Amino acid sequence: MATKPFRPDEARRIMRFLHKPAVFINMTDNWPGRDWTLEHLAVCLEKAVRFRVGKKCEKKAPLFETECSYLEATLAEFLCWTSGSDDASVGPFADYPLSEYWAYADYKYIALLFQEKISMFKDIMWSDFGYPGLDGRESTLWVGTNGANTPCHLDSYGYNLVFQIQGRKCWHLFPPDDTECMYPTRIPYEESSVFSQVNVMRPDMHRFPAFRRARAHLVTLEPGQVLFVPRHWWHYVESVDPVTVSVNSWIDMEVDDEARIGEALTKTVICALKSKPSMDNKDNWLNPTEDGISTHDENMQYLNLAVKAYMNKRSLHSEDLIKCPEQPSPSALKRDSSGHLKTPVAEPVTSFSLPFGPNLIPVTCHGDLTQKPLVTNPKEALISKDNTFFYTQRGTKTMHTDTHEKEEAISVTEEEEEDGNAGATCGRISTNDLLDCLLHPDVIKLVTKLMIDRQKELH
C-alpha cells in the first residue's frame, strides 16, 4: 500500500489550523469509494431516488430548490438519460431534454441509501483524516449532470470534507467576513443553511452593488481529491462534466449555545410571519429539505430550551471558576532561594507551518469571477522555493501565492449596464423583504444578546 502524504493525526492537525479552503491530494488512492462511479452505483442501488431538476438558463436570480422540479428515478434510469439512450425517452426523464435541463440527486444520506448493504459504508474512509470510526454512514451522496448546482449558501453547523469521485465540480467560495456582500436571506428557509440572494455566476450589480467587494476563492475539484471547506464559508457549487459523483461529510457539528438561540429565534419569526395567509405569502418558502412547519408553541418551546441550556452552562462555568480559580494562591507559587515569589514563565506558543505543496493546495482569492478556477491537477502545478504556486494550463502560465488577499472589485459589464435600471425606485415592501431585514445575521446577534442579557438580570 502506498504511503499517504499525511498521517491521520497530521491531516486532522492541518485542518485545525486551516482557516481557508484547501485541497488534499493523494489521500484517497486506496479508498474503495474511488470505484463509486455512476455505472457502479447504478448496479448497487436499485431503489428509486429523488432528483432535483432545473432548466439551463442565464438569469440573474438564483434558482433555489423551491423553484425546481422533482422526480423519482433509479440511477440506472438516470444513466440511460445521461448516455442518450432511447429508453430515456419513455422513462421518468422523458419530459426533460438533456440539452435543456440538468438533474441532481443531492443530500442523499448513504446510511439510508445502502441500509441493506452496510458494508459499503466502509468504502469511505474518513479515518485517514483523523476521524476514526467515521465513514460513509455519516456522509451524503451527490450525483448530477453538467450544470447541476447548489445555490450559494453557508452551512450553520460544522465544516465540510468533500470527496470528488467522478467528474469535476467548480467551487466558488467566499469568507465569512464577506457576509455583508452576499445579501443573506432565510427564504427559502432551511434550519442549517443561510442562502445568498446573489447569483454569483451572473450577479445583478444594480441590485447587489456590495457584491463587488466579495472575495471569490475558486477551485475545480477533480476525481480523487478532497476539499476542506471551513466553518461558515459561503459556497456555490456547479458540476462541469456530463456526470459527477461526490461524497460530503459535515464534521464537528456541535453548535455553540448562542448560535442555537439565534436559530430558534429565526425559526420562530419565520414560521409566525410566513404561516399567516396574505396576498404576498403564497410563495413556496419552506425548503424541501425541511420536514414541515412547526407550530408557534413548538418554536417557543425550542427557543426557551435553547436559552435555558445557555444559562445552565453559564451557571456551571461560574461554579467551576469559583472552585478552580485561574490564578493560583500565593502559597502555591514557587519561591526562589531568597524567598521571593518566582515570576511565572509563559508557556511557549506552539507554531505550525501548514505544509502546502503538491499534496495540499490552498484555494486562493481570485477576486474577479471571470478568472479561471484554481488548477488542482498536480501535473499542472509547480512550486517554487518561496512557496509560490505556478499553474500551467493549455500552454499558459499564471502565478498565485498562498498569501494572496487582494480585494478586487467585480466590474459591471456593458451587458449588465444595459440590462439594469438607471435609477432605483421605491417599491412595495413584501413580507420577505421584512424578513430579510428582521433576520439579518447582525440583527439576530443583537436580539440574541438582548435576550441573554435580560435572562442574566432575572437570575
Automatic annotation (TrEMBL):
Sorted UniProt keywords: Cytoplasm
Localization, UniProt: Cytoplasm
InterPro entries: Cupin_8, JmjC_dom
Main location: cytoplasm
UniProt xrefs under SUPFAM superfamilies: Clavaminate synthase-like
Cellular component annotations (GO), alphabetically ordered: cytoplasm
Biological function: May play a role in cellular stress response.
Name of the protein in question: JmjC domain-containing protein
Naturally occurring in which organism (per UniProt): Hemibagrus wyckioides
